[in-house]
């Protein structure tokens, strides 16, 4: 499969005078689904076909949470996976996914989950750092564990989690092994965000990665592994952004009658210095079939951006099979990231953003709401 090369000319094709943007998030449009805690990256439990699994008249949602501290930037160093049920009456917190210390790493970052027909839940997640570390480390590993979906007194629960198995490791050939980067937000390297998808009769794991073959400090990639012979086998990157961008986050794919769509999120500040800089938003590519040549959506890869007046209002976008788009509310109503941590604390929404809706037609994508 030939990788898509995400190039400066794609970003240069974005027209500032005709920028596709999400609606402004109103000040009263975000929800505090877990008082006292920040809630950000989240994803629903899906079926193998990619549809949202219906559970107890709603959906099961996995989310990253951290205690609401003085600076929301520090939440990544305390992230844990929690379980929620989202229904007609809103989100209901069901508690931490894992018992403290039950899984590898010091923290958990994003992933995906799929419900099998026998009620087994396959959860893929990123384990970060090491148990007992004195300083938060950026070492990332991809793991899978399996639990069982149950109803206890009418409330959904997932328990019986098995020991986590490391799915894929960076090999130094396709994917960079050294992940420290500059150590700051936006500079660390990626091996995270595993996303399970079944395409053309094969099971694949997509993930945010750093291209080992690149000589640039901006070497973001969408990595891939295929399920073969009872294990995940690394494949070459699906997207390479050498010299353009450092982080292609939360990559995911959906299959439709007209072809396959691959999406990722990125932020303005992780584009290469001295080159064209795209806005923070959702980007993507299209192929008429899995394995066919990729085409940039909308000619530029940009699906939509945050509005110029609120360039950091939302992030971590996920397109579902019904073309709804989930994300979390980051810093709505702000024209820039506040430099003062007290201002960041006051501005950070830390909860689910309003759901958007896409329309797709081949290599064209647009927001309808």
Distance between the termini: 34 Å
Taken as a percent bin, the fraction of beta residues is 35-45%
Question: How many β-strands, per DSSP?
Answer: 25
Encode the helix/strand succession as letters.
EHEEEEEEEEEEEEEEEEEEEEEHEEE
Largest sheet: 6 strands, mixed
Write a compact overview of the structure shown.
The chain is mostly beta strands and 369 residues long.
Task: Itemize the secondary structure elements and their pairings.
Layout lengths: L3 E2 L2 H5 L24 E8 L1 E2 L11 E9 L12 E8 L2 E7 L10 E9 L4 E9 L11 E13 L2 E5 L5 E2 L24 E9 L2 E9 L9 E9 L2 E10 L8 E8 L2 E8 L14 E7 L7 E2 L5 E4 L8 E6 L4 E6 L11 H7 L3 E2 L3 E6 L2 E4 L2
Parallel strand pairs: 1-15, 3-7
Antiparallel strand pairs: 2-4, 4-5, 5-6, 7-8, 8-9, 9-10, 9-11, 12-13, 13-14, 14-15, 16-17, 17-18, 18-19, 18-20, 21-22, 22-23, 22-24, 24-25
Features:
369 residues, mainly beta, 5-stranded mixed sheet, 6-stranded mixed sheet, 3% helix, 44% strand
Would you write up a description of this structure?
The protein is mostly beta strands and 369 residues long. The chain contains two helices and 25 strands. Strands 3, 7, 8, 9, 10 and 11 form a six-stranded mixed β-sheet that branches. Strands 1-15-14-13-12 form a five-stranded mixed β-sheet, with no helix packed on it. A hairpin with a 7-residue loop joins β18 (281-287) and β19.
């Amino acid at each position: 499969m030939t990788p898509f090369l995400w190039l400066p000319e794609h970003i240069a094709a974005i027209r500032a005078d005709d920028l596709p943007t999400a609606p402004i998030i109103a000040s009263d449009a975000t929800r505090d689904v877990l008082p006292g805690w920040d809630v950000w990256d989240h994803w629903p439990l899906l079926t193998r076909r990619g549809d949202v699994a219906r559970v107890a008249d709603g959906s099961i949602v996995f989310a990253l949470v951290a205690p609401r501290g003085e600076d929301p930037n520090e939440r990544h160093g305390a992230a844990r996976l929690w379980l929620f049920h989202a229904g007609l009456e809103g989100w209901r917190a069901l508690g931490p996914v894992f018992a403290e210390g039950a899984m590898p790493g010091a923290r958990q970052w994003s992933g995906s989950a799929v419900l099998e027909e026998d009620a087994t839940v396959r959860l893929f997640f990123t384990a970060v750092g090491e148990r007992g570390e004195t300083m938060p480390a950026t070492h990332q590993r991809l793991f899978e564990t399996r639990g069982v979906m149950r109803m206890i007194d009418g409330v959904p629960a997932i328990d019986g989690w098995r020991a986590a198995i490391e799915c894929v490791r960076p090999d130094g050939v396709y994917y960079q092994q050294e992940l420290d980067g500059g150590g700051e937000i936006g500079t660390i390297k990626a091996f995270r965000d595993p996303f399970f998808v079944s395409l053309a009769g094969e099971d694949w794991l997509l993930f945010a990665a750093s291209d080992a073959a690149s000589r640039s400090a901006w070497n973001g990639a969408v990595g891939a592994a295929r399920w073969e012979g009872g294990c995940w086998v690394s494949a070459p990157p699906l997207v390479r952004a050498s010299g353009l961008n450092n982080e292609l986050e939360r990559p995911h794919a959906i299959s439709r009658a007209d072809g396959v769509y691959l999406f990722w999120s990125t932020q303005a500040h992780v584009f290469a210095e001295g080159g064209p800089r795209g806005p923070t938003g959702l980007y993507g590519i299209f192929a008429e079939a899995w394995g066919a040549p990729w085409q940039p959506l909308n000619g530029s890869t940009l699906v939509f951006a945050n509005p110029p007046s609120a360039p950091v209002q939302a992030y971590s976008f996920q397109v579902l099979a019904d073309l709804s788009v989930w994300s979390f509310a980051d810093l709505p109503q702000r024209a820039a990231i506040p430099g003062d941590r007290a201002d960041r604390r006051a501005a950070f929404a830390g909860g689910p953003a309003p759901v958007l809706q896409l329309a797709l037609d081949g290599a064209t994508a647009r927001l309808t709401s």
